[in-house]
Amino acid sequence: MVVPRPSKPQAEAFGFPNPLLGIAGFAIVTTIGAALLAGASFRRLFWLGLQAGVTFGVVFVHWLIFQSLYRIQALCPYCMAVWAVTVPIFWYVTLHNLNRGHLPVPTGAQKAVAAATPVPHCCADDLDGCAAHTDRRAVLDVLETLP
Asked: How far apart are CA 125 and CA 140, in angstroms?
């Protein structure tokens, strides 16, 4: 069976179909999310590696947005869904790394980072004692009941 090649060079930016990057990238992010829900903690180097990956992803997605809008002049629903998910993943990982000190934060920007962080740093390590994590605790309780 012969598989037709994409008609635009942007569809294979690195010599293979772009969706393969998405499949691998989202599988990694999903696995990390499941591990965090299960209580895993990761070292600084791990978070910096994830930061590098999501930064590459958000830059690549913005390049693809430009290509779709101004060069190809066509949109696909799958692409737009990937764009809509990649940007929040980038911001969540970036804010987490800034808040935890994995990335340096200028003194004047520390309050802005703390205000933009979805989970308060003060209770990020104390799941049971923090009211901000009640939703996460409920998810973990449900997961513990599964066979």
From this structure: 15
Residue found by looking up tokens 């800034």 in the block: 98
Task: Tokens for 58, please give them.
Answer: 């958000």
- Judged on CB neighbours under 10 Å (0-12, 13-18, 19+), 84 is exposed
Contact present, 29 and 89 (Cβ < 8 Å) = yes
Q: What are the extents of the domains in the chain? A: 17-116
Question: How many Å apart are CA 24 and CA 14, to the nearest integer?
Answer: 14
CB count within 10 Å of CB 126 equals 9
Model confidence at 3: pLDDT above 90: no
Average pLDDT along the chain? 81
In whole angstroms, what separates CA 108 from the centre of its chain?
26
Which DSSP state fits 50?
A: H
Token pair 């779709």 is found at 68
Consecutive H or E run containing 92: helix 77-100
